[in-house]
Specification:
By secondary structure, this protein is an all-alpha fold. It has 2 domains: 70 residues, Arc Repressor Mutant, subunit A (Orthogonal Bundle); 131 residues, Orthogonal Bundle (Tetracycline Repressor, domain 2), CATH 1.10.357.10.
Length: 224
């Protein structure tokens, strides 16, 4: 057997000896690294300022490998938004954080807690939305039609239900939805400014709890 043949057999044998999950997981890990790097780029410099080459470098993959998974920057941007929507949709969040809550008030309280925790976990989400939502665009229309519109109707409807019970202040539900999201997200999306001015870390457990308490005090007619 030639040395080349022996080397080939050794490689094949090594591959067979590896767990199947490890071999299958690698493309998923590459995709996850690219999505993480892309989210950071789109949330920091916006769609126009981001480059696939820089994203590939940040993800520590080749540009050709990135383009194998996402053929264009637009495809990559949409994949980032879909990934965020699947993990952090308001309607999905309601089912996770309040599976046993029955009243609209309790569901809304649990949802507010979930939104604050989500905003602390992924501050890039609000930063990306701020960059995308400040002017009309095809990307914003696509997000609203596929994801944001549904969440807007869902959360506004829940606020309206809680208002009918007298639990939430009587203001426009849609406007209140924007107020809740802003209060929940801004301490984390502008964390450097927040920490510089308040001398407090917005990501600390006590600050997260105080953010939740503040929103509840302002939103609910009789906060607990």
């Amino acid at each position: 057997m030639t040395s080349a043949s022996a080397k080939a057999e050794s490689i094949v044998a090594g591959a067979k000896g590896r767990p199947a999950a490890t071999r299958k997981r690698r493309p998923e890990e590459v995709r996850a690294r690219v999505l993480t790097a892309a989210l950071h780029a789109f949330a920091t410099v916006g769609f126009e300022g981001a480059s696939t080459r820089a994203i590939a470098a940040d993800a520590q993959v080749s540009l050709s490998l990135l383009l194998y998974h996402f053929q264009t920057k637009d495809d990559l941007w949409k994949a980032v938004v879909v990934d965020l929507a699947e993990r952090y949709s308001i309607s999905g969040l309601d089912a996770i954080v309040a599976p046993d809550a029955t009243s609209p008030k309790d569901r809304l309280k649990a949802m507010i807690r979930g939104i604050v925790n989500m905003s602390a976990e992924v501050p890039e989400l609000h930063r990306l939305m701020t960059l995308e939502a400040h002017q009309p665009s095809k990307r914003l229309t696509w997000m609203c039609e596929n994801f944001i519109g549904k969440d807007f109707e869902y959360m506004s409807g829940l606020i309206s239900e809680a208002q009918k019970q007298g639990a939430v202040r009587r203001v426009d539900p849609g406007r209140l939805r924007f107020a809740i999201l802003g209060m929940a997200a801004i301490p984390f999306s502008v964390s450097a400014e927040y920490q510089h001015l308040t001398k407090r870390n917005p990501f600390s457990k006590i600050e997260i709890e105080q953010t939740i308490e503040l929103i509840n005090a302002l939103i609910f007619a009789e906060p607990d």
